From TrEMBL:
Domain of life: Bacteria
Name listed for the protein in its UniProt record: Peptide methionine sulfoxide reductase MsrA
Native source organism of the sequence: Algibacter pectinivorans
The protein's enzyme class: oxidoreductase
Domain Peptide methionine sulphoxide reductase MsrA: 6-154
InterPro entries named among the record's database cross-references: Met_Sox_Rdtase_MsrA_dom, Met_Sox_Rdtase_MsrA_sf
Pfam families: PMSR
Keywords: Oxidoreductase
Amino acid sequence: MSSYKKAYIAGGCFWGMEDLFRTRPGIKDTEVGYIGGENDNPTYKYHPGHAEGIELTYNPNETSFKAILDYFFRIHNPTTIDRQGNDKGSSYRSAIFFQNEEEKKEAEEMISIVNASGKWEDDVVTTLEPYSTFWQAEPEHQDYLVRIPNGYTCHFERFQESFI
């Protein structure tokens, strides 16, 4: 497990993103939580400035950060500011939390590729934010759609083919 890496993204309600990513090749673990906000130990009821994000543990021999971002841009609408489906507010923003300059550069490149593709009517508004502490969400939010298969989600594959 020491050769595994982690990626941190947010794109609306964390339940749906986690559910779609959990079965992707190379993804070894998913956790939902809060990232990029103002307080320590955020909770579902109090997480000012935090996005509902996911922590992806992946094997870089089986997938890449760029492939993760490619799928990320296909399962949520990255052109809406602070909104996904019925969910509104900064908690539901589209964001990539980069851990180093290489990840930041790859994220910038992916945004350019997505914009150039013309698949989305508007330009990507996904923010690039430096990684900050990822706070794991409460147990009832982990694996939510596994436990409640007909539970709420606004995520689905909008595009079958890859951007890359």
